[in-house]
Design brief:
This is Purine nucleoside phosphorylase. Keywords: Glycosyltransferase, Transferase. Pathway: Purine metabolism; purine nucleoside salvage. One of its GO terms (molecular function) is purine-nucleoside phosphorylase activity. The purine nucleoside phosphorylases catalyze the phosphorolytic breakdown of the N-glycosidic bond in the beta-(deoxy)ribonucleoside molecules, with the formation of the corresponding free purine bases and pentose-1-phosphate. With 271 residues, this protein is an alpha/beta fold. The protein has a single domain (3-270), classed as Nucleoside phosphorylase domain (Rossmann fold, 3-Layer(aba) Sandwich). It is 31% helix and 24% strand. The chain contains six helices and nine strands. It has a five-stranded mixed beta barrel. Helix 1 packs across helix 2. The longest helix has 25 residues, at 246-270. The protein is globular, with a radius of gyration of 18 Å.
């Protein structure tokens, strides 16, 4: 990645009408319908944007959408990238850097995750309060990182406190169950063994997924306030582990999606 590439991607989007978005949104597995709420939308498919990776997961569509949501200009990633697709950390987080170059001041992230904390139930949501990076690398570990910001980034408060508090308030006002917990990010794409679920519980994870952490690290590198919410699509009880059907995960995420849309839309109104 070079600054020239980043500039080329950004200039292409500006030429398409992506004009000073205020808020960036990353939509997770089974959570693409928020895009339907966007007014005056302009779409750019990933394969048309210079230097952009391509989404290879069948249930992740690959486009960047610009428009208005809750009275604010937003840019939405409908379809994200994962390590398990064969991308490296710099590829996965490239769109965050592009959205930042376009002008976003806040970043909202959603994902689908498995519930390690057995007090959390399938279909519930969890506000990510902190995370554990188990992906074996960093999106900041590349030679010319200093051209993009400081190499050593403080992660004592990776998720923005103000936005977290607002989301908890919105959830309470709308009778939405929103737990607060620790998200562990793993490589995937295989799901965890019983022993791995036990391990994740021991190290302090409340939920596990295969995304989000690289994007959050880069947001912190860019000093971009970020908040993230997981839809809990399965219960990971190692003593009573059922086989997971990916189609069922998509369905659970889809049923919970209206709650996610409420949380994000009301938060955007407040920002």
């Amino acid at each position: 990645m070079t600054l020239i590439e980043l500039l080329e991607s950004t200039e292409f989007l500006k030429s398409k009408g992506f004009d000073n978005p205020e808020i960036g949104i990353v939509l997770g597995t089974g959570l693409g319908k928020l895009a339907n709420e966007i007014e005056n939308e302009i779409t750019a498919h990933y394969n048309h944007i210079p230097y952009f990776p391509l989404a290879t997961v069948e249930f992740h569509s690959g486009k960047l959408i610009f428009g208005e949501l809750a009275g604010k200009k937003v840019v939405v990633m409908q379809g994200r990238f994962h390590l398990y697709e064969g991308y490296d950390f710099v590829d996965i987080t490239y769109p965050i850097r592009v959205m930042h170059k376009l002008g976003i001041k806040k970043l909202l992230i959603s994902n689908a995750a498995g519930a390690i904390n057995l007090n959390y139930k399938k279909g519930d949501m969890m506000l990510i309060d902190d995370h554990i990076n188990l992906q074996g690398g960093s999106p900041l570990a590349f030679k010319n990182v200093a051209e993009f910001g400081e190499r050593f980034v403080d992660m004592s408060e990776p998720y923005n406190t103000h936005m977290k508090n607002k989301l908890l308030e919105i959830a309470k006002n709308n009778n939405i169950t929103l737990h607060k917990g620790v998200y562990a990010s793993v490589v995937g794409p295989q799901l965890e063994t019983r022993a791995e679920y036990r391990y994740l519980k021991i190290v302090g994870a409340d939920a596990v997924g295969m995304s989000t952490v690289p994007e959050v690290i880069v947001a912190n590198h860019l000093k971009l306030p970020v908040v993230a919410v997981s839809v809990l699509t399965d219960e990971c009880d190692p003593d009573n582990l059922q086989q997971v059907d990916v189609q069922e995960i998509i369905e659970v995420a889809g049923k919970a999606e209206p709650k996610m849309i409420t949380l994000f839309k009301e938060l955007i109104e407040m920002l």
